[in-house]
Structures are given as C-alpha cells and as structure tokens.
Amino acid sequence: MRNAQDEPSLQELLNRAKVRQRFEELLNQSAPSFISSILAIYKSNRKLQECSTTSILAAAGIAAALKLPINPNLGFAFIVPYNKHATFQIGWKGFVQLAMRSGQYRTLNSGAVREGQIEEIDFVTGEIIRGEKISDEIVGYVAYMELINGFKKSLYMSVDEMQAHAEKYSQSYAYDLRSGRKSSVWSTNFDAMAKKTVLKKLLNNFGIISIDQQSAALATA
User: In this structure, are residues 19 and 57 in contact, taking their beta carbons and an 8 Å threshold?
Assistant: First the structure.
C-alpha cells in the first residue's frame, strides 16, 4: 500500500536526474513526451493514483525499454492498477509491432470469429477450414501468421477457452467475477485482450521470438 510519508510522489520520481537520464537513454528525443504521457495517464486514472509510485515507474520503464507507447487509446501497452500495485501489460498491437520488428513476418493478425465462419479444424495439422457466417455472435478468436520464408500457421480459441484462460491467469478478472465489478481490462475490453491472448499463444508456440518479445512475454506472464 502506498504511504505518502515514505514514498515520493510520481512527479518527484520523474524529476530525478537519474530517472530522466534513463528514459533519455531508452527513448532519445521521445523521452519528454513519454514522461508527459506517464503523468497524464496517472492523473486521469483514480485507481492508478492509489498505486505505489515506484511500481508505476517500473511499469513505465518496461514500456520505454520496449519502445511502446502507453496511451491506452492506442492499444500498444498499458499500465494497469491492481491491489495498489501497477503492472505493465502489453496489448495485441504491441505484440504485432514487436514481431514485425524482426523483419521475418509477411502477415500477422488476430481477430474475432463469428458463428459459422470456421467449419472445422484439422486435429493433426491444425489447419482451419473456413465456413460461411450465419450470425454476428462471436464464438472465438483466431490468430494467423505467415513468415517471409513461406511458413504459415493459425491458432483458434473458443470464447469458453478464452474465458477459462482469463479466469486462470488474471487475478483482477477473477476478482471482478466474484464481486460483480468491472475493474480489469478483461472486463472492460474482453475483445482486445482475447485478440492479444490468441496472438501471444501463436507467437510463443510457432513464431520467431525476438529478445523484445521474450521480455514482453515475461513481463505479462
């Protein structure tokens, strides 16, 4: 829990020469605008204001190291409050950007699947056989990758599988389900989190993993 008597404010932390120097080393000329975005997000999020300022700075540092913007409207990376502690969380756009930086991907995407759009999945090859959409109901999420060398792979997760994943790996989402609240990103933007999850699984299982992607995966495990 944050204690105002023994922990500096976020502004005080960001004003420290060593902190500003570190952001400048990571982001060069973009450092001032990134620091401003940290303060803007902090001031606009009441839950984040209850978090340890050092945890906020640490989460922002991960985003800076990966060179991902933290404006939540952009969907690349987020600083997420939970139980008075802030954590770094990468968005699905962030995973796409980190993967594309490797220069090995021709195509990389993830999205929602409507009822009827997938007819069958070959249990041996994992190949998805497409069908015709019969309603707008979202029944699952699919991710697809194609490397420059021609390797292709896709991964599908049903809504039930995605729900089970969220309940197992997100403490804040499990809390929301127990309490009837909507405090986690899974509760407020299930679609974006599902797209990220299926894409992350595909890249972890079959993709070319860069150092940045490994760091991001560890930070959001």
Answer: yes
- Look up residue 70 and give its two tokens: 């933290």
Of 90, 116, 131, the one marking the end of a domain is 90
Domain identity same for 137 and 30: no
Helices (H), the chain: 10-15, 17-27, 31-44, 46-49, 53-66, 92-100, 159-169, 171-179, 185-188, 190-206, 211-219
Other CB atoms closer than 10 Å to residue 98's CB: what's the count?
Answer: 24
Tell me, yes or no, whether 101 and 127 share the same domain.
yes
What is the rounded average pLDDT of the residues 106-131?
Answer: 92
- Are 69 and 19 spatial neighbours (Cβ–Cβ below 8 Å)? no
- Per residue in 36-60, pLDDT (tens digit) is 999 999 999 998 999 999 999 999 9
Find the helix or strand (DSSP H, E) in which 189 lies: none
Q: What angle do CA 18, 101, 73 make, to 5 degrees?
A: 70
Q: What is the pTM of this model?
A: 0.78
Kindly state whether residues 79 and 129 are assigned to the same domain. Answer: no
Q: Which two tokens stand for residue 108?
A: 């990389």
**2 falls within a domain:** no
* Tally of domains within the chain: 2
Model confidence pLDDT, tens digit, residues 57-99: 999 999 999 999 999 889 899 998 888 899 998 988 998 888 8
Any domain includes 132? yes
